[in-house]
Design goal:
60 residues; two-stranded parallel sheet; 3 helices; 7% strand
C-alpha cells in the first residue's frame, strides 16, 4: 500500500463522504489508485466510480 494512501483516504472521506456517500474502503481504494498514478479505475460500485471521476481517474 502506498505510504500516503491513508492520509489521502482521510482527506477524500472528509471532502466527499457526505456529498457522494462514499465509505472508508471506497475512499481508500481510490486513494491507492491515485497514489500509484493509475490512469483507469475499474469498479462496479457507482459511488466509488463517482469519487474516482471527481479525482480525475477514468472509470469503466
Amino acid at each position: 500500500m502506498p505510504e500516503h494512501a491513508f492520509d489521502l483516504c482521510a482527506d477524500l472521506a472528509r471532502r466527499y463522504g457526505p456529498k457522494l456517500g462514499v465509505r472508508t474502503l471506497d475512499s481508500l481504494h481510490v486513494a491507492c489508485a491515485l497514489e500509484l498514478k493509475a490512469e483507469r479505475f475499474w469498479t462496479f460500485d457507482e459511488r466509488q466510480a463517482k469519487l474516482a471521476r471527481v479525482e480525475g481517474l477514468k472509470t469503466t
